[in-house]
From TrEMBL:
Enzyme class (EC, first level): oxidoreductase
Name assigned to this protein: N-acetyl-gamma-glutamyl-phosphate reductase
Known catalytic reactions: N-acetyl-L-glutamate 5-semialdehyde + phosphate + NADP(+) = N-acetyl-L-glutamyl 5-phosphate + NADPH + H(+)
EC number of this enzyme: 1.2.1.38
Annotated Semialdehyde dehydrogenase NAD-binding domain residues: 6-112
Classification lineage: Bacteria, Pseudomonadati, Pseudomonadota, Alphaproteobacteria, Acetobacterales
A GO CC annotation given for this chain: cytoplasm
């Protein structure tokens, strides 16, 4: 790899692509862009891929799959091939891909460093997995726990189409969706949180651009006998004590969804009643920060072995 690695963002003009481009200014890398008029042309994209050390895919799932085939085509014709970081849902549970959540386990940063294919996590799974996985790993929550996840997102989570609808036509103040109970993030949450059962996941979107809260209610008598809210909090604190982005915070009585807008951090909380019979676990993040572009920058830094100047 040259002194200044080259990055090509396929989908640079989209919501996630723009966020990554902006954040890349903090890293010692060179961005290889293509003429916006040619951004969907196969030839122009293939040339840009061949010139890059890392390709970041910020595309819809189908276009991401096509882009990965293009990189594989380069390899088949004996050309140098870039590493790939994919922001879509297409490869988050695929064999041969490393899940780009460095806080997942102690070994995950090294796995991301070594990988040639990394899948950037979804926004909701980032919150849900961050709350659930340490509790399963610590043996406090059994893998067959009946998990329910409620979440609210800012409308930028829906990409360009939802942004245009909300901003031009003044979309709904608040709406539940995914009520077919088969949201595209369920397989990812289940696989990386190590859950045996499919969680019930009820996402929602509000008339605000950015911000997210993921919340998971827990009946304490369904956890491993004797588990307290303090045990849950300790397990989370132990997992994230070394993280620069994830922190465990004091429980609050109210939580505002857009408090972390512009930050790449995520806050986790354990809210309990006095009798310790009910707990609600919450994760608060910027859906475009730790939920998308911020997470991508963490992965890019690991994959290219660079850090902010
Ligand atoms: N928004 C979010 O909060 C998050 C989104 N993601 C994921 O990131 C990916 C991108 O999402 P997002 O940025 O929101 O979407 P956007 O719709 O905002 O951006 C997608 C971009 O890709 C371009 N594009 C579409 N098809 C092609 C193609 N065949 N070749 C080249 N460019 C193409 C689009 O151009 P045009 O507009 O002209 O069609 C657009 O610029 C998605 O897979 C999404 O699931 C991940 C985490 C969070
Ligand atoms: C509000 C909204 O529509 N959100 C999107 C998820 C956005 C996201 O971050 O997920 P991906 O990375 O998988 O695209 C949805 O529910 O499909």
């Amino acid at each position: 790899m040259s002194a200044e690695p080259v990055v090509f963002i396929d989908g640079e003009a989209g919501t996630t692509g723009l966020g990554i481009r902006e954040r890349l200014r903090a890293l010692p890398v060179r961005i290889h862009s293509i003429d916006p008029a040619r951004r969907k042309e196969t030839q122009a994209r293939a040339e840009a891929m061949a010139a890059a050390d890392l390709v970041v895919l910020c595309l819809p799932d189908a276009a991401s799959k096509e882009a990965v085939e293009m990189v594989e085509g380069l390899a088949a014709s004996g050309q140098r091939t870039p590493k790939i970081l994919d922001a879509s849902t297409a490869f988050r549970t695929a064999p041969g891909w490393v899940y780009g959540f460095p806080e997942l386990s102690e070994d995950q940063p090294e796995a991301i460093r070594q990988a040639s294919r990394v899948a950037n996590p979804g926004c909701y799974p980032t919150g849900a997995i961050a709350l659930l996985r340490p509790l399963i790993d610590a043996g406090l929550m059994k893998p067959d726990f009946p998990v329910t996840i409620n979440a609210v997102s800012g409308y930028t989570g829906g990409g360009r189409t939802m942004i245009e609808t909300q901003e031009k036509e003044g979309g709904p103040a608040f709406m539940l969706y995914g009520l077919g109970l088969a949201h595209k993030h369920l397989p990812e949450i289940r696989q990386h949180a190590l859950l045996e059962k499919r969680p019930i996941f009820v996402p929602s979107v509000g008339h605000f651009p950015r911000g997210m809260i993921v919340s998971i209610p827990v009946h304490m008598d369904l956890l491993v006998k004797g588990t307290t809210a303090a045990d849950l909090r300790r397990a989370l604190e132990e997992r994230y004590v070394t993280s620069s982005f994830v922190r465990v915070c004091k429980a609050e009585n109210t939580l505002v969804a857009d408090a972390l807008v512009g930050s790449d951090d995520m806050e986790l909380r354990v809210h309990a009643d006095e009798a310790n019979t009910h707990v609600v676990l919450t994760a608060r993040l910027d859906n475009l920060g730790k939920g998308a572009s911020g997470a991508a920058i963490q992965n890019i830094a690991l994959m290219l072995g660079v850090s902010p100047a």
